[in-house]
Amino acid sequence: MRLLLVFLKEPLPGQVKTRLATEVGSDKAASIYRAMVRILLQQLGGLEDCRLRFCYAPDDAHEAIKFWILPEIMESKDILLDPEEIDFHAQGEGDLGQRLTGAMRCAFEEGFQKVAVIGSDCIEISSRWIHAAFAQLSHRHDAVIGPTPDGGYHLLATKRFLPALFEGIPWSSPATYEVTMERAAEHGIATYALPPLADIDHLPDYEAALVGPLGRRLEKLVKRYES
Questions:
Q1: Cβ neighbours of 215 (radius 10 Å)
Q2: Which helix (H) or strand (E) holds 60?
Q3: In angstroms, rounded to a whole number, what is the distance separating the alpha carbons of residues 70 and 76?
Q4: N or C terminus of the chain with fewer C-beta within 10 Å?
Q5: What is the C-alpha to C-alpha distance for residues 119 and 180, in angstroms, rounded to an integer?
Q6: CA–CA gap between residue 41 and residue 72 (Å, rounded)
Q7: pLDDT tens digits, residue range 184-208?
Q8: Is the full-model pTM beyond 0.90?
Q9: pLDDT tens sequence across 68-94
């Protein structure tokens, strides 16, 4: 059994895309975030033999997240996801490393054999990308990681619980990916690196995405959520 964890936040102005918000304003940043998640849902259509779990923050946003995500899926012809294969879990307390550790531990305790986790900052991730990551979790590779140009990573997949990958990591820094790889080497965790994909964290990232392959879709959705 395989599971994809998607970490996301309730799309409230001032609570999401805070770095981008300093450049475009909180309301527009929230609209951009909603558009990014909508595109991610579209991109994940076609997941096979894989459950989908939305890990949300804050922890009291369960109903708000469900009433945001499920209608997007069920009322949209361009989102090919099965609501029966989806569930929702709170991220829990602690820093990102503690929350990732908890989510991964829970998944493997439930019996999943391969687990991938992504955020909601990269719109280029697709179901094919997820399948490619799972395919690399062979007898040779214990973990698969996808870097971002700013030094972070957009995806991490493992075939067993590996808490060392989340301990002592400088999150949201140019050293996140590098230190994660160092931790893997220290603990004898064989890793496979996917090609890099860009996050949207700052205005130049957003502007680059607008001229990329998903740019028209992104711009159209942002305008919809702004109206």
A1: 15
A2: none
A3: 10
A4: C
A5: 16
A6: 8
A7: 999 999 999 999 999 999 999 999 9
A8: yes
A9: 999 999 998 999 999 999 999 999 999
